[in-house]
Amino acid sequence: MLLAIETSCDETSVALLERNGTVRANLIASQIERHQPFGGVVPEIASREHLQHLFPLLTRALGHAGAKWSDVEGIAVTAGPGLIGALLVGVAGAQGLAYGLGVPLIPVNHLEGHLFSAYLQKEGAAIPMPARFLSMVISGGHSSIYDVKAGVSTMLNRTRDDAIGETFDKVAKFIGLPYPGGPQIEKFGREGSADPKRFPFPVPQFKEESLDFSYSGIKAGAIRLAREHGITATGDAKSLADFCATFQDALIAQLIDRLDAVWRRIDEPKPTEIAIAGGVAANGVLRDRVARWGGERGLIVRLPEKRYCTDNAAMIGFAALQREGSATDPRRVIARSRVH
Ligand code: KG4
Ligand code: ZN
Q1: What does the alpha-carbon distance between residue 87 and residue 95 come to, in Å, rounded to a whole number?
Q2: Ligand 1, atom 23: closest residue by C-alpha
Q3: 3.40.50.720, 3.30.420.40, 3.90.920.10, 3.10.560.10: which CATH number matches 2-122+308-332?
């Protein structure tokens, strides 16, 4: 069995997987409540929390999977990108364990974990990954579409400024909703109607040749509109709901617009499958829109289980299973906040 550890940001997570991608345990200790008073992740708090949670979580994960230490044949760990102090806790822990157990250690790029995560199932073996697919990673730190061929990804676009999740979080914070803002905006928006006349969010204009996302305009527009209309978490409930619904709609409209621009630019034969991944992929309205967009083009759309959208160790283990050749001497693994 493969043991996987993820500590790149604000979730400590430990998973156990079988070779075919069956997830036997995937435990997550979320630190959200510890960071909430600060409206965002505080790196020093994150490292300390990982230190506290990692080892108890390892024991629990083994128990959950009905496994013993001697069943662990290899260890996967997120080596970057992420908060360096947070990564170091996972990497140092994994190094010690791999060395002690005498098993290989596989460093994993966090982003690659997200890339493949739509193929993991709640129960049973993973869905076989096609030779080629598009994967859209949308999280607090990333908004990019990748062309994945035989497990090798090529970035097709990126955001020029803020990531989509970051935009959800910053606007939510401005109106006084707790961190992380994405699920809050979705929750309040559910009761509202998206009326672009009442809240005219700026529609970014892109030059024909650009495929990139850009969310800073919508963010600035949202903050201006919230100020003008007095939108706050404790204010008029109907206005808050309408504001959230319209803001979410504007973000998703751009996502689909750019996805379509990327799609049109891809040469024939085009991929037949698209996956989405990352925390923002948990958004129900977004999932429906991507499914509809893909359906209209005859594509297979892979929407990850919600548990595999936000940071989790199962996806790290699964990425390692695609890269078994990259196991290395545990002492050689280095945590890196940025990975090029
Ligand atoms: O993948 P993730 O857990 O961490 C990063 O690697 O960034 O993503 C966290 C992001 C946050 O910005 C959060 O607001 C967003 O995902 N998010 C959502 C939803 N759930 C989480 N955004 C929109 N709707 C959601 N339901
Ligand atoms: Zn992530």
Answers
A1: 12
A2: 182
A3: 3.30.420.40
